[in-house]
Amino acid sequence: MSENLSTLQGQKIKNIRSRVVSVPLKRPIVGKVGSFTKWPLVLIDLETHGGIVGKSYLEPYVEKLAGSIVGVIDAIAQIFENKPLGPVDLYDGAMKTLHLNGREGITLIAQSGIDIAIWDALAKSVNLPLVSLLGGTPGKIRAYNTNGLWLIPLDEIGHQAESLVKEGGFKALKLRLGRETVAMDKQAIRNIREAVGEDILIMTDFNQGFTVSEALQRMHALDDEGLYWFEEPIVYDDFYNYTHITKKIKTPIQIGENIYGSRTFQKAVLARAADMYMPDLMRIGGVTGWMRAAAIAGASGSPLSSHLYTPLSAQLLRVSESADWLEWSDWAEPILEKPFPANNGFAVVDDTVGNGIEWNETAVKKYQLK
Description:
Blueprint: H1 2-9, E1 13-31, E2 34-48, E3 53-58, H2 63-76, H3 87-97, H4 106-125, H5 130-133, E4 139-145, H6 154-166, E5 172-176, H7 182-196, E6 201-205, H8 212-222, E7 229-231, H9 239-248, E8 253-255, H10 261-270, E9 276-277, H11 281-284, H12 286-300, H13 310-317, E10 326-328, E11 342-343, E12 346-349, H14 361-367
Parallel strand pairs: 4-10, 5-6, 6-7, 7-8, 8-9
Antiparallel strand pairs: 1-2, 2-3, 4-12, 11-12
Protein backbone atom coordinates (compact mmCIF):
# COMPACT_ATOMS: atom_id res chain seq x y z
CA MET A 1 0.00 0.00 0.00
CA SER A 2 2.78 2.46 0.96
CA GLU A 3 4.67 1.56 -2.22
CA ASN A 4 1.61 2.35 -4.34
CA LEU A 5 1.10 5.63 -2.48
CA SER A 6 4.73 6.60 -3.03
CA THR A 7 4.42 5.84 -6.75
CA LEU A 8 1.26 7.92 -6.98
CA GLN A 9 2.80 10.88 -5.18
CA GLY A 10 5.69 10.80 -7.62
CA GLN A 11 3.40 11.27 -10.60
CA LYS A 12 3.25 15.02 -11.04
CA ILE A 13 2.15 16.69 -14.24
CA LYS A 14 5.01 17.70 -16.53
CA ASN A 15 3.28 19.11 -19.59
CA ILE A 16 0.08 19.10 -21.64
CA ARG A 17 0.12 18.94 -25.43
CA SER A 18 -2.81 19.18 -27.85
CA ARG A 19 -3.27 18.64 -31.59
CA VAL A 20 -6.17 19.04 -34.02
CA VAL A 21 -7.20 16.47 -36.60
CA SER A 22 -10.14 16.40 -39.00
CA VAL A 23 -11.34 12.97 -40.07
CA PRO A 24 -13.81 12.02 -42.83
CA LEU A 25 -17.29 10.91 -41.83
CA LYS A 26 -18.54 7.65 -43.32
CA ARG A 27 -22.04 9.14 -43.48
CA PRO A 28 -22.24 12.97 -43.73
CA ILE A 29 -24.17 14.83 -41.05
CA VAL A 30 -27.20 16.59 -42.52
CA GLY A 31 -29.40 18.22 -39.91
CA LYS A 32 -30.69 21.33 -38.21
CA VAL A 33 -27.20 21.76 -36.74
CA GLY A 34 -25.67 22.07 -40.22
CA SER A 35 -23.99 19.78 -42.73
CA PHE A 36 -20.60 18.18 -42.14
CA THR A 37 -18.49 15.75 -44.15
CA LYS A 38 -15.51 15.89 -41.77
CA TRP A 39 -15.27 15.66 -38.00
CA PRO A 40 -12.68 17.70 -36.06
CA LEU A 41 -11.07 16.31 -32.92
CA VAL A 42 -8.74 17.91 -30.39
CA LEU A 43 -6.29 15.30 -29.10
CA ILE A 44 -4.77 15.88 -25.68
CA ASP A 45 -1.67 14.24 -24.18
CA LEU A 46 -0.85 14.94 -20.54
CA GLU A 47 2.61 13.71 -19.51
CA THR A 48 3.78 13.17 -15.94
CA HIS A 49 7.34 13.42 -14.67
CA GLY A 50 7.17 9.66 -14.19
CA GLY A 51 6.61 9.10 -17.91
CA ILE A 52 2.89 8.27 -17.83
CA VAL A 53 0.81 9.85 -20.60
CA GLY A 54 -2.88 10.46 -20.00
CA LYS A 55 -4.96 10.87 -23.14
CA SER A 56 -8.27 12.42 -24.05
CA TYR A 57 -10.04 13.94 -27.00
CA LEU A 58 -12.72 16.55 -27.65
CA GLU A 59 -15.27 16.69 -30.47
CA PRO A 60 -15.89 20.41 -31.11
CA TYR A 61 -18.10 20.04 -34.23
CA VAL A 62 -16.73 23.11 -36.02
CA GLU A 63 -13.24 22.80 -37.44
CA LYS A 64 -12.53 26.54 -37.26
CA LEU A 65 -13.19 26.59 -33.50
CA ALA A 66 -10.83 23.74 -32.68
CA GLY A 67 -7.82 26.05 -32.73
CA SER A 68 -9.45 28.32 -30.17
CA ILE A 69 -9.91 25.37 -27.82
CA VAL A 70 -6.24 24.46 -28.21
CA GLY A 71 -5.37 28.06 -27.37
CA VAL A 72 -7.35 27.91 -24.13
CA ILE A 73 -5.82 24.53 -23.23
CA ASP A 74 -2.36 26.02 -23.72
CA ALA A 75 -3.30 29.09 -21.69
CA ILE A 76 -4.54 27.18 -18.66
CA ALA A 77 -2.02 24.32 -18.83
CA GLN A 78 0.31 26.19 -16.49
CA ILE A 79 -2.29 25.80 -13.71
CA PHE A 80 -1.57 22.06 -13.74
CA GLU A 81 2.22 22.01 -14.09
CA ASN A 82 4.01 20.12 -11.29
CA LYS A 83 0.71 19.32 -9.59
CA PRO A 84 0.08 15.74 -8.36
CA LEU A 85 -2.56 13.60 -10.05
CA GLY A 86 -5.53 14.58 -7.92
CA PRO A 87 -8.28 15.19 -10.49
CA VAL A 88 -10.93 16.46 -8.07
CA ASP A 89 -8.58 18.97 -6.44
CA LEU A 90 -7.22 20.04 -9.81
CA TYR A 91 -10.71 20.41 -11.28
CA ASP A 92 -11.96 22.54 -8.41
CA GLY A 93 -8.82 24.67 -8.43
CA ALA A 94 -9.02 25.23 -12.18
CA MET A 95 -12.71 26.11 -12.03
CA LYS A 96 -12.00 28.83 -9.48
CA THR A 97 -9.58 30.44 -11.92
CA LEU A 98 -12.31 30.48 -14.57
CA HIS A 99 -14.70 32.70 -12.60
CA LEU A 100 -13.63 35.88 -14.39
CA ASN A 101 -13.90 34.36 -17.89
CA GLY A 102 -16.93 32.18 -17.30
CA ARG A 103 -17.52 28.57 -16.28
CA GLU A 104 -19.20 27.65 -19.57
CA GLY A 105 -18.27 27.60 -23.23
CA ILE A 106 -14.72 27.08 -24.47
CA THR A 107 -13.14 27.54 -21.02
CA LEU A 108 -15.06 24.58 -19.59
CA ILE A 109 -14.56 22.56 -22.78
CA ALA A 110 -10.78 22.98 -22.45
CA GLN A 111 -10.90 22.12 -18.76
CA SER A 112 -13.00 19.03 -19.53
CA GLY A 113 -10.42 17.69 -21.96
CA ILE A 114 -7.63 18.12 -19.43
CA ASP A 115 -9.72 16.51 -16.70
CA ILE A 116 -10.32 13.38 -18.81
CA ALA A 117 -6.56 13.09 -19.45
CA ILE A 118 -5.76 13.49 -15.73
CA TRP A 119 -8.13 10.66 -14.82
CA ASP A 120 -6.53 8.47 -17.51
CA ALA A 121 -3.05 9.18 -16.15
CA LEU A 122 -4.22 8.47 -12.60
CA ALA A 123 -5.74 5.13 -13.62
CA LYS A 124 -2.54 4.19 -15.44
CA SER A 125 -0.43 5.18 -12.42
CA VAL A 126 -2.22 2.58 -10.27
CA ASN A 127 -2.53 0.03 -13.13
CA LEU A 128 -6.33 0.00 -13.21
CA PRO A 129 -9.01 0.49 -15.85
CA LEU A 130 -10.76 3.83 -15.38
CA VAL A 131 -14.04 2.04 -14.64
CA SER A 132 -12.35 0.14 -11.79
CA LEU A 133 -10.69 3.26 -10.41
CA LEU A 134 -14.16 4.83 -10.24
CA GLY A 135 -15.48 1.89 -8.25
CA GLY A 136 -17.08 -0.16 -11.00
CA THR A 137 -16.20 -3.22 -13.04
CA PRO A 138 -15.62 -3.93 -16.72
CA GLY A 139 -18.70 -5.21 -18.51
CA LYS A 140 -21.30 -4.38 -21.10
CA ILE A 141 -23.63 -1.43 -21.62
CA ARG A 142 -26.53 -1.33 -24.03
CA ALA A 143 -26.03 0.97 -26.99
CA TYR A 144 -27.95 2.61 -29.82
CA ASN A 145 -26.44 3.55 -33.16
CA THR A 146 -26.30 7.28 -33.88
CA ASN A 147 -24.16 7.10 -37.03
CA GLY A 148 -26.82 8.06 -39.54
CA LEU A 149 -30.52 8.71 -40.23
CA TRP A 150 -30.03 12.44 -40.55
CA LEU A 151 -32.34 14.61 -42.65
CA ILE A 152 -31.60 12.55 -45.73
CA PRO A 153 -34.04 11.77 -48.56
CA LEU A 154 -36.90 9.61 -47.37
CA ASP A 155 -36.22 6.90 -49.92
CA GLU A 156 -32.74 6.35 -48.44
CA ILE A 157 -33.86 5.89 -44.84
CA GLY A 158 -34.88 2.23 -44.92
CA HIS A 159 -31.64 1.04 -46.51
CA GLN A 160 -29.54 3.12 -44.13
CA ALA A 161 -31.47 1.82 -41.10
CA GLU A 162 -30.70 -1.75 -42.18
CA SER A 163 -26.98 -1.00 -42.47
CA LEU A 164 -26.93 0.74 -39.08
CA VAL A 165 -28.52 -2.23 -37.35
CA LYS A 166 -25.96 -4.56 -38.91
CA GLU A 167 -22.99 -2.49 -37.69
CA GLY A 168 -23.38 -3.97 -34.22
CA GLY A 169 -26.56 -5.97 -34.01
CA PHE A 170 -28.24 -2.86 -32.66
CA LYS A 171 -31.71 -2.95 -31.16
CA ALA A 172 -32.07 0.85 -31.18
CA LEU A 173 -31.32 3.69 -33.62
CA LYS A 174 -31.26 7.50 -33.55
CA LEU A 175 -33.44 9.30 -36.12
CA ARG A 176 -33.32 13.06 -36.72
CA LEU A 177 -36.70 14.69 -37.13
CA GLY A 178 -37.95 18.14 -38.07
CA ARG A 179 -38.64 17.81 -41.77
CA GLU A 180 -40.86 20.28 -43.61
CA THR A 181 -44.08 18.51 -42.65
CA VAL A 182 -45.44 16.13 -40.02
CA ALA A 183 -46.27 13.69 -42.80
CA MET A 184 -42.61 13.55 -43.84
CA ASP A 185 -41.48 12.84 -40.27
CA LYS A 186 -44.10 10.09 -39.98
CA GLN A 187 -42.96 8.60 -43.27
CA ALA A 188 -39.36 8.54 -42.03
CA ILE A 189 -40.47 6.58 -38.94
CA ARG A 190 -42.56 4.24 -41.08
CA ASN A 191 -39.67 3.58 -43.45
CA ILE A 192 -37.42 2.53 -40.57
CA ARG A 193 -39.98 0.13 -39.15
CA GLU A 194 -40.70 -1.40 -42.53
CA ALA A 195 -36.98 -1.94 -43.09
CA VAL A 196 -35.85 -3.26 -39.68
CA GLY A 197 -39.04 -4.26 -37.87
CA GLU A 198 -41.23 -2.99 -35.08
CA ASP A 199 -38.93 -4.24 -32.32
CA ILE A 200 -36.12 -1.76 -33.07
CA LEU A 201 -36.38 1.19 -30.68
CA ILE A 202 -36.23 4.65 -32.23
CA MET A 203 -34.73 7.60 -30.39
CA THR A 204 -35.42 10.93 -32.12
CA ASP A 205 -33.63 14.27 -32.13
CA PHE A 206 -34.93 17.64 -33.32
CA ASN A 207 -31.53 19.34 -32.81
CA GLN A 208 -33.13 22.46 -31.27
CA GLY A 209 -34.87 23.17 -34.57
CA PHE A 210 -38.26 24.52 -33.41
CA THR A 211 -39.86 27.36 -31.51
CA VAL A 212 -41.95 26.32 -28.51
CA SER A 213 -45.24 26.42 -30.41
CA GLU A 214 -43.80 24.57 -33.41
CA ALA A 215 -42.32 21.94 -31.13
CA LEU A 216 -45.59 21.34 -29.32
CA GLN A 217 -47.52 21.01 -32.58
CA ARG A 218 -44.99 18.57 -34.05
CA MET A 219 -44.65 16.43 -30.94
CA HIS A 220 -48.40 16.25 -30.32
CA ALA A 221 -48.72 14.93 -33.88
CA LEU A 222 -46.00 12.32 -33.28
CA ASP A 223 -46.84 11.48 -29.66
CA ASP A 224 -48.50 8.15 -30.50
CA GLU A 225 -45.68 6.82 -32.70
CA GLY A 226 -44.15 4.78 -29.86
CA LEU A 227 -40.80 6.61 -29.94
CA TYR A 228 -38.30 6.12 -27.11
CA TRP A 229 -37.68 9.84 -26.65
CA PHE A 230 -37.91 13.30 -28.22
CA GLU A 231 -34.57 15.07 -27.93
CA GLU A 232 -33.94 18.83 -27.82
CA PRO A 233 -37.01 20.14 -29.68
CA ILE A 234 -36.18 23.76 -28.71
CA VAL A 235 -33.08 25.76 -27.78
CA TYR A 236 -31.15 23.80 -25.17
CA ASP A 237 -31.11 26.26 -22.26
CA ASP A 238 -34.79 27.24 -22.14
CA PHE A 239 -35.55 25.16 -19.05
CA TYR A 240 -38.75 27.08 -18.32
CA ASN A 241 -40.35 26.03 -21.60
CA TYR A 242 -38.84 22.55 -21.43
CA THR A 243 -40.73 22.09 -18.17
CA HIS A 244 -43.92 23.15 -19.95
CA ILE A 245 -43.25 20.79 -22.87
CA THR A 246 -42.42 17.85 -20.61
CA LYS A 247 -45.77 18.19 -18.86
CA LYS A 248 -47.69 18.32 -22.14
CA ILE A 249 -46.07 15.48 -24.10
CA LYS A 250 -46.43 11.75 -23.35
CA THR A 251 -43.23 10.67 -25.09
CA PRO A 252 -40.23 11.19 -22.76
CA ILE A 253 -38.26 14.39 -23.34
CA GLN A 254 -34.47 14.05 -23.50
CA ILE A 255 -31.96 16.92 -23.05
CA GLY A 256 -28.47 17.40 -21.67
CA GLU A 257 -25.80 17.27 -24.36
CA ASN A 258 -25.49 21.06 -24.32
CA ILE A 259 -25.63 21.56 -20.55
CA TYR A 260 -22.43 23.06 -19.17
CA GLY A 261 -21.32 21.78 -15.77
CA SER A 262 -23.03 19.95 -12.94
CA ARG A 263 -24.52 23.11 -11.39
CA THR A 264 -26.51 23.91 -14.51
CA PHE A 265 -27.36 20.23 -14.78
CA GLN A 266 -28.86 20.42 -11.29
CA LYS A 267 -30.91 23.46 -12.30
CA ALA A 268 -32.43 21.49 -15.18
CA VAL A 269 -33.26 18.53 -12.95
CA LEU A 270 -34.76 20.73 -10.22
CA ALA A 271 -36.88 22.50 -12.85
CA ARG A 272 -38.11 19.10 -14.11
CA ALA A 273 -37.06 20.32 -17.54
CA ALA A 274 -36.95 16.80 -18.99
CA ASP A 275 -37.67 13.16 -18.26
CA MET A 276 -34.20 11.96 -19.26
CA TYR A 277 -30.70 13.42 -19.51
CA MET A 278 -27.61 12.78 -21.64
CA PRO A 279 -24.47 14.69 -20.60
CA ASP A 280 -21.67 15.41 -23.05
CA LEU A 281 -18.19 14.93 -21.61
CA MET A 282 -16.68 18.10 -23.06
CA ARG A 283 -19.48 20.28 -21.71
CA ILE A 284 -20.40 18.62 -18.43
CA GLY A 285 -16.83 18.93 -17.11
CA GLY A 286 -15.03 15.75 -18.11
CA VAL A 287 -14.98 12.74 -15.80
CA THR A 288 -15.26 14.87 -12.67
CA GLY A 289 -18.24 16.82 -14.01
CA TRP A 290 -19.91 13.63 -15.25
CA MET A 291 -19.66 11.91 -11.86
CA ARG A 292 -21.24 14.91 -10.15
CA ALA A 293 -24.05 15.10 -12.71
CA ALA A 294 -24.58 11.34 -12.56
CA ALA A 295 -25.09 11.57 -8.79
CA ILE A 296 -27.77 14.24 -9.33
CA ALA A 297 -29.49 12.14 -12.00
CA GLY A 298 -29.37 9.05 -9.84
CA ALA A 299 -30.77 10.80 -6.78
CA SER A 300 -33.63 12.22 -8.84
CA GLY A 301 -34.40 8.92 -10.57
CA SER A 302 -33.66 10.41 -14.01
CA PRO A 303 -32.45 7.95 -16.68
CA LEU A 304 -28.95 8.90 -17.80
CA SER A 305 -27.62 8.28 -21.31
CA SER A 306 -24.46 9.57 -22.96
CA HIS A 307 -23.63 11.90 -25.83
CA LEU A 308 -20.70 10.87 -28.09
CA TYR A 309 -17.26 9.93 -26.62
CA THR A 310 -18.27 6.30 -26.97
CA PRO A 311 -15.34 4.43 -25.33
CA LEU A 312 -15.13 6.96 -22.49
CA SER A 313 -18.86 7.35 -21.88
CA ALA A 314 -19.29 3.56 -21.68
CA GLN A 315 -17.01 3.41 -18.65
CA LEU A 316 -18.80 6.28 -16.95
CA LEU A 317 -22.22 4.76 -17.56
CA ARG A 318 -20.97 1.59 -15.88
CA VAL A 319 -20.62 3.59 -12.64
CA SER A 320 -23.76 5.75 -13.02
CA GLU A 321 -26.74 4.79 -10.86
CA SER A 322 -29.43 5.56 -13.45
CA ALA A 323 -27.51 4.48 -16.58
CA ASP A 324 -29.80 4.06 -19.60
CA TRP A 325 -28.19 4.07 -23.08
CA LEU A 326 -24.75 4.55 -24.61
CA GLU A 327 -24.83 6.67 -27.76
CA TRP A 328 -22.55 4.67 -30.05
CA SER A 329 -20.66 6.45 -32.80
CA ASP A 330 -17.47 5.61 -34.67
CA TRP A 331 -16.57 9.15 -35.67
CA ALA A 332 -13.33 9.21 -33.66
CA GLU A 333 -12.23 5.72 -34.66
CA PRO A 334 -10.02 6.73 -37.62
CA ILE A 335 -7.38 8.09 -35.21
CA LEU A 336 -7.78 5.53 -32.41
CA GLU A 337 -5.42 2.58 -32.09
CA LYS A 338 -8.20 0.27 -30.89
CA PRO A 339 -11.82 0.43 -32.10
CA PHE A 340 -14.73 0.16 -29.67
CA PRO A 341 -17.23 -2.10 -31.41
CA ALA A 342 -20.74 -3.12 -30.44
CA ASN A 343 -22.12 -6.64 -30.67
CA ASN A 344 -25.73 -7.72 -30.36
CA GLY A 345 -26.65 -4.20 -29.26
CA PHE A 346 -24.07 -3.94 -26.47
CA ALA A 347 -20.66 -2.31 -26.15
CA VAL A 348 -18.19 -3.95 -23.80
CA VAL A 349 -15.82 -2.16 -21.43
CA ASP A 350 -12.79 -4.43 -21.04
CA ASP A 351 -9.98 -4.48 -18.48
CA THR A 352 -7.56 -2.25 -20.42
CA VAL A 353 -5.61 -0.04 -18.01
CA GLY A 354 -6.64 3.63 -18.14
CA ASN A 355 -9.50 4.89 -20.28
CA GLY A 356 -8.53 2.74 -23.27
CA ILE A 357 -7.66 5.65 -25.57
CA GLU A 358 -4.46 5.31 -27.60
CA TRP A 359 -3.62 7.14 -30.83
CA ASN A 360 -2.98 5.62 -34.22
CA GLU A 361 -0.11 8.01 -34.90
CA THR A 362 0.02 7.18 -38.60
CA ALA A 363 -3.61 8.25 -38.95
CA VAL A 364 -3.06 11.28 -36.73
CA LYS A 365 -0.27 12.49 -39.01
CA LYS A 366 -2.51 11.91 -42.04
CA TYR A 367 -5.45 13.94 -40.71
CA GLN A 368 -3.64 16.52 -38.55
CA LEU A 369 -4.37 20.17 -39.31
CA LYS A 370 -1.44 22.52 -39.53
